[in-house]
Amino acid sequence: MLRQFLYFALLIVASSVVLADAQTYRLQCGDYELSISPRYHQTMRSISFEQRMLGTPTGFYNLVIGEASGKYVGAGHTEGGQEKVLKFRLLCDDQEIEPAIGQVYSGKKIVLEKESQLLQTVFLSRITMTPEGIIEQKRFRTLAPQSFYYLYLYQYCFDKATTDYAAMTADGKLRTGEFDGNFTGSNRWHLNSDVKWTAILDRHSGHGLLLYYPQIIKGASRKSAFWEVKNAYNKYYLMGAMPDQPADYVSPLYTVIIRGFKAGAEDLSATAASLAEQTAAFPVPECP
């Protein structure tokens, strides 16, 4: 009886995950595909390159802020308040689209923009997709004095099947590591450094993603880090450094460029470094 109960419980959980992930629409451009979740305030739900889903619908993407420990706000986090979308638009080859759940939108250039209020701060978030890659940008302004206990500028839930990472730190050191599950406990952290770029790889399929920062973003706490959680994901965080700000503060423009590549584990560092060098010349859109 217990075995049967556990079986049906697992079925219910699995069905819930599928249903939650089904509440999305997809954006396709070249070899890249994103799924976007209206339920989670028009944020990413997955990232695919050459039909290999490297970012999975196993957690929250985009940004999170908070004024106290455990009081997260943003995407699906509501422990400290609710994200409120003020403006939103989706452009596909310069044509504005009203997206519908379950639909697929393809083009040579896709732009998703939104303004959201999180606590006393309004964030502009923009995703630009072209056949060359994905650019994710953010800027914010405070409406009233704002405390930043947390400012997670970027989050990506990378597939548990990803195996390796590489990174170039802000001081020019190459760092590498593996997600091998070979540790006690349920999770561990990797990297924990400011970076110029970092990359992840699934050595089995040979697919990887580069995260390249045109301007290094100074981090706090774990800075840029991978959280390896057994049976869940290898989640990437960029935890930004931000002191408390008065009203009418306007942040810098934060930008990350995401590009896919193929490599073996032995070639990851060289391939990612070469692609990062090419990406340095990548045109970065202006942002109001």
pLDDT < 50 runs, ≥5 residues: 1-20
What is the straight-line distance between the termini?
Answer: 60 Å
What is the global morphology?
globular
Number of DSSP helical runs: 2
* Secondary-structure content class: mainly beta
Number of individual domains: 1
The CATH topology turns out to be: Beta-galactosidase, Chain A, domain 5
Please tell me how large the radius of gyration is: 19 Å
Could you tell me the strand content as a percent range? over 45%
The CATH class assignment is Mainly Beta
The strand order across the widest sheet is 8-7-10-11-12-21-18-17-14-15
Helical amount among residues, as a percent range?
A: 10-25%
Mean pLDDT: 93
Summary of the model, kept short:
This protein is mainly β. It has two helices and 21 strands.
Could you walk me through the main structural features you see in this protein, from its secondary elements to its overall organization?
By secondary structure, the chain is mostly beta strands. The chain has one domain (2-279): Beta-galactosidase, Chain A, domain 5 (Distorted Sandwich). 11% of the residues lie in helices and 49% in strands. The protein contains 2 helices and 21 strands. The protein has helices at residues 2-22, 268-279, and strands at 25-29, 32-37, 43-49, 52-55, 64-66, 72-73, 84-92, 95-97, 104-106, 110-118, 121-130, 133-142, 150-158, 164-169, 174-178, 187-193, 195-202, 207-212, 219-229, 233-240, 254-262. The strands form 3 sheets. A 10-stranded antiparallel beta sheet has the order 8-7-10-11-12-21-18-17-14-15, with helices on one face. Strands 6-5-13-20-19-16 form a 6-stranded antiparallel beta sheet, with no helix packed on it. Strands 4-3-2-1-9 form a 5-stranded mixed beta sheet, with no helix packed on it. Strand 10 (110-118) and strand 11 form a beta hairpin. The model is unreliable at 1-20 (pLDDT under 50).
